[in-house]
Amino acid sequence: MNHPLLDLPPLTADRFASIEKRVADLLSTRQDVVVTQGEALLPLEGCIRSGARPGSVALNVVTGPYGNTFGNWLRDCGAEVVDLVVPFDSAVSAERVAGALAERPEISFVSLVHAEAATGNTNPVAEIGEVVRAHGALFMLDAVASVAAEPLLPDAWGVDLCVIGAQKAMGGPAGVSAVSVSERAWAAFAANPAAPRRSYLSLLDWKERWIDGGRKTLLHAPAQLEMLGLEACLERIGAEGLSAVTARHAGAAAAVRAGAEALGVAPYVTDPAAAAPVATTLRVADAPAIAARVREAGVPVTAGSAEMLRVNHYGAAATRETVRASLAALAGALGRPETAVRAGLAAAEAAWPAA
């Protein structure tokens, strides 16, 4: 018996290449794009293990939990790591990055997360990219949570390695990701004797056997369902329009923030300019217990810590309906009166178009 998800024709090299081209268009990049067959941690680790080497010095900006992961990988590669740690309820400034680079001129690799879905902050990549480019280091950006939720222009911002995943604002599957790679990054990888080769982590394998070969022969059988899911979400973004998708995320973030404040709940990220559009984090006492009560109402929220509650609003959930349901469930979990609920919903509705 035929099954539409199982009895599929093989994914051709041409189809795979066409999906890569769509990703490149989404990022407005003229650099090479490689679609990688796994969750975004795969290309992120591949970038670090290709770009760092024993004896090198790396600047690792830590504004959330993923920064800690990157630092561990960099150390495992034998690099000396300078961690620039910023409170998780704020963003890093270009000035702080410039200061860290000035103190260690030998820094050759910089890693940064654009938007931290786990902590609800976002970093000013355009300004940071200008500083890193002037220094001459390779710049790796984790844009998994920011792609399609806020402006992302790796070429214009001097990003050498821009890693994205489909599972958040793009509204696609979690098992596929992609990375854009600059020419200077490819050169650095090729000059690094410690860069992975003949490995699932090897980006150089894709460069030499796929890109340089004219994208005629795939390295292995592609993850077919995930590739088709990525293609479908790119088509959906194209149909809605990227600017409309990012505007929808901005509206959802502003609405949740305004509605929560009307309920008497303070945002975890105090500066609105540093707040990510994919998720809003709130400062709530006994967040795990509150999160459990909110989930009883059918609204998926997460307690990031004892005092931080995260409301997700990305992809298909970046809607007025999701925002209203989240605020109503939060109000109920906090025991707010009906007058407060109405005030919260009204504040959210007023904030959405203003965003």
Write up what this structure looks like.
With about 350 residues, the chain is α/β, with parallel strands linked by helices. It has two domains: about 15-215 and about 225-240, 3-Layer(aba) Sandwich (Aspartate Aminotransferase, domain 2); about 240-355, Aspartate Aminotransferase, domain 1, CATH 3.90.1150. It is built from twelve helices and 13 strands. It has helices at about 15-25, 40-50, 65-75, 95-105, 125-135, 185-190, 205-210, 225-240, 240-260, 285-295, 320-335, 340-355; strands at about 30-35, 55-60, 80-85, 105-115, 115, 120, 140, 160-165, 175-180, 265, 280-285, 300-305, 310. The strands form three sheets. It has a seven-stranded mixed sheet, with helices on both faces. Strands 10-11-13-12 form a four-stranded antiparallel sheet, covered by helices on one side. It has a two-stranded antiparallel ribbon with strand order 5-6. Helix 1 (about 15-25) runs parallel beside helix 8 (about 225-240), helix 9 (about 240-260) runs antiparallel to helix 12 and helix 10 crosses helix 11 (about 320-335). The longest helix is centred in the C-terminal third of the chain and has 21 residues, at about 240-260. The protein is globular, with a radius of gyration of 21 Å.
Map the helices and strands:
Elements lengths: L12 H15 L4 E5 L4 H11 L5 E6 L2 H12 L3 E6 L8 H10 L3 E7 L1 E2 L4 E2 L2 H11 L2 E5 L18 E5 L11 E5 L1 H8 L12 H9 L12 H17 L1 H21 L3 E2 L11 E5 L3 H10 L4 E5 L2 E5 L7 H15 L3 H17 L1
Helix pairs in contact: 1-8, 4-5, 9-11, 9-12, 10-11, 11-12
